[in-house]
């Protein structure tokens, strides 16, 4: 099992203003629990011992919130200016010792049905064949989502980006396993991880696993409202 992780928590959450003017996006509650705690609790449940959390916007609030937790061990990777996903990962990379690790967005809610999605990702992971393994959600099952999807899947589990297709059947959930070599040759600067996913796809090293549980992305005020009002969320969180 993979026992290290990173939670991406540095963003400004502009699409959730005015909520995020005074509260960092990861500390906004879904079903009565901060999204950051939801992510960390899921990681602890599958044996993750150490987690890097990157911060920037309203970082002091996130650091104060983390002090109340005993598990997992948390390392703060603070960014004085936003480095985007790619740069944030590069800055934190020395903490992972060249080994694969979970990466979770801090603005999602998900509930497993049966087996843990993180455990399934870990079991499916193959460092020899993969640079990235994405958890993918069927478009029709996503709570509060109205987009056109992100990926297709081949029969052997390789993920293919939508590109010029008008729609794709799966959304990238914001949950993945990455190998540090995905970031080989990069520098600590602000850059998107997406071109590196495309490169891994071209090399046949980008894979996906379909999620069969409940999932929602808190990308807008409307989606936050839809998720908080969904009975699947109300039944689980307290």
Descriptive report:
By secondary structure, the chain is of the alpha/beta class. The chain has one domain (4-236): Alpha-Beta Complex (Spore Coat Polysaccharide Biosynthesis Protein SpsA, Chain A). 27% of the residues lie in helices and 26% in strands. It has eight helices and 14 strands. The chain has helices at 19-22, 35-45, 59-66, 84-92, 117-124, 194-202, 221-229, 231-236, and strands at 4-8, 29-30, 33-34, 50-55, 73-78, 101-105, 108-111, 132-138, 142-143, 151-153, 159-161, 170-178, 206-210, 214-217. The strands form four sheets. Strands 5-4-1-6-12-8-13 form a seven-stranded mixed sheet, sandwiched between helices. Strands 7-14-9 form a three-stranded mixed sheet. It has a two-stranded antiparallel ribbon with strand order 2-3. The longest helix has 11 residues, at 35-45. The two termini are 29 Å apart. The model has no long low-confidence stretch (mean pLDDT 91).
What percent of residues are in strands?
Answer: 25-35%
Q: How does the major sheet shape up? A: 7 strands, mixed
Within the CATH hierarchy, at the fold level, what is the topology? Spore Coat Polysaccharide Biosynthesis Protein SpsA, Chain A
Give me the secondary-structure category. Answer: alpha/beta
What's the tally of helices?
8
At the fourth level of CATH, the homologous superfamily is: Spore Coat Polysaccharide Biosynthesis Protein SpsA, Chain A
């Amino acid at each position: 099992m993979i026992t290290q992780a990173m939670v991406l928590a540095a963003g400004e959450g502009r699409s959730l203003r005015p909520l995020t003017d005074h509260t960092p996006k990861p500390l906004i509650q879904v079903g009565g629990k901060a999204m950051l705690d939801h992510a960390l609790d899921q990681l602890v449940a599958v044996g993750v011992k150490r987690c890097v959390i990157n911060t920037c916007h309203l970082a002091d609030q996130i650091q104060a919130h983390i002090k109340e937790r005993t598990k997992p061990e948390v390392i703060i990777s603070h960014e004085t200016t936003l480095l985007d996903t790619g740069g944030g990962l590069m800055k934190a990379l020395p903490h992972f010792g060249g080994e694969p690790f979970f990466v979770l967005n801090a603005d999602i809610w998900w509930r497993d049905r049966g087996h843990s999605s993180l455990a399934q990702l870990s079991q499916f992971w193959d460092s020899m064949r993969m640079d990235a393994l994405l958890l993918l959600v069927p478009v029709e099952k996503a709570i509060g989502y109205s987009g056109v999807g992100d990926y297709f899947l081949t029969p052997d589990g390789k993920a293919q980006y939508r590109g010029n297709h008008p729609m794709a059947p799966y959304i990238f959930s914001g949950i993945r396993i990455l190998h540090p070599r995905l970031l080989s040759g990069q520098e600590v600067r602000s850059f998107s991880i997406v071109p590196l996913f495309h490169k891994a796809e071209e090399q046949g090293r980008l894979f996906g696993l379909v999620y069969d549980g409940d999932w929602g992305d808190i990308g807008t005020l409307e989606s936050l409202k839809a998720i908080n009002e969904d009975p699947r969320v109300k039944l689980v969180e307290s």
